[in-house]
Amino acid sequence: MTSRDSAALEADLRRLQAELETCRKELRKVTELSTVGQLLAGIVHEINTPVGSILSNNEVAIRSLELLGTLLDQARREGAPPPPKTAKVVATLMNLAAVDKIACERIVSIVRGLKTLVGGAGEEFVEADVNTILEDTLKLARCEFRRRIQVETHYGDLPKLWCRPNRLGQVFLNILVNAGQAIRGEGKVIIRTEKEGEFVHVAISDNGPGIAPEDRPRIFSSGFTTKPTGVGSGLGLAISKDIVVGEHGGRIDFESEVGKGTTFHIWIPVARKTEEQQL
Amino acid sequence: MTATEKVYSTAESEPEPTIVIVDDEEMVLTSLSAYLTLETDYNVVTFTDVDEALAYLEKHPVDVVVSDYLMPKMDGIKFLARAKELQPETSRVLLTGHADKQSAIEAINKVGLFQYIEKPWDNAALLLVIRNACDRTRLLRSLQSKIQQLDEAHANLKTAQSQLIRAFL
């Protein structure tokens, strides 16, 4: 082989590698969106309730203000004090304003959860709190869990991490969605965080049916899924591992017992990676 | 005339209709009762807990029951079925954010639902449904009381007839 041939081959290889990298990035984006897609029905339902309330309250507020105007005009014309009914209308309006605030906060928290996942700035490494990322992710997962799955959180006192928050959110959401889909009927998910030496340790447990021993060696492999066609892509955990290990220099592992449940463990190093390591 | 007849046969003495609303979301209950209180004189009673709603239905006559579908202890269809057992004449309305037509069909067939309303709801449409539901309940009750009156009159007639026969024998 001439040196020229080998140079051409090397160039080809580099080009293919670059193409592969682009494809991997695309795939990651698609998988990210597909996880959110799986939650969409739940998210719609969660937003629907507060929206319905706000819509109704707005109408009642307009009618109440009209009524209030009429009552006060009448009293002014007659030189009488405002009738007792005005106080009642004002009390109703105050009550509705309080409900609207709660309703808006509900919608905002879901939107914040979505932004944590698909925010454009998420590619950057920033200082972030893992407990906050988990809490934002849980807001989305809860749309799917609703009252079927109880969530217990034990957040430890953690140092800020130098990380890509939306990537870690993606990892947590993948594991939470898997847990939610594994649990049939009612169940429980427990989240624990703690500082463990130079690492932040996140453990997410479910009391689902567990992972079959023969499936265990393959769960982090691309394309492996036990979910029905159209539900799982078989990429969630493969990408999660890539994010934890490849991007953050951490570790991901699990323990599972058939009939008892599964726990996923994630360790992320506390020490800030050097610029070179980030690349 | 019995007390029940009195309540349902003369328009002037009829108390305002009682509407029971069940939803596990407090905010939905606040919005609905604020609207109904503003627009009507209905006696609006709300519950976040199905068991408490059923306990209320056991003791008080209710004109319309409006229920959410997805609730923690019992779904809306099961709850409305229980409500029907307790008060068969009461009109039942399912108010749901669950975008599942199958549950609606199931509800209408199983529980003999009066109406199915989707969230987010339109206040005016909801009020119209509740008004019609009230009318239906009241008509059923007055029909029932008329049937009872007829039965009683029939029984009285029978007694009189047998007394007459006995008097002649």
Q: Keywords, please?
A:
heterodimer, A: 279 residues, Heat Shock Protein 90, five-stranded mixed beta sheet, two-stranded antiparallel ribbon, 6 helices, 16% strand, B: 169 residues, alpha/beta, Rossmann fold, elongated, disordered N terminus
Structure description:
- The complex is a heterodimer of chains A (279) and B (169).
- Chain A has helices at 3-78, 84-118, 130-145, 165-182, 236-247, 275-278, and strands at residues 126-128, 149-154, 161-163, 187-196, 199-206, 251-257, 261-269.
- Chain A is of the alpha+beta class and 279 residues long.
- In chain A, helix 4 (165-182) packs antiparallel against helix 5 (236-247).
- Chain A is elongated and about 105 Å long.
- The two termini of chain A are 33 Å apart.
- The mean pLDDT of chain A is 86.
- Chain B is α/β, with parallel strands linked by helices and 169 residues long.
- Chain B has one domain: Rossmann fold (3-Layer(aba) Sandwich), CATH 3.40.50.2300.
- Chain B has a five-stranded parallel sheet with strand order 2-1-3-4-5, sandwiched between helices.
- In chain B, helix 1 (3-9) packs across helix 6, helix 3 (50-59) runs parallel beside helix 4 and helix 4 (76-86) runs parallel beside helix 5 (101-111).
- The chains are: A alpha+beta (279), B alpha/beta (169).
- The A-B interface holds A 41, 44-45, 48-53, 55-57, 59-60, 63-64, 67, 92, 95-96, 99, 102-103, 146-147 and B 24-25, 27-28, 30-32, 34-35, 37-39, 70, 72, 97-99, 119-121, 123.
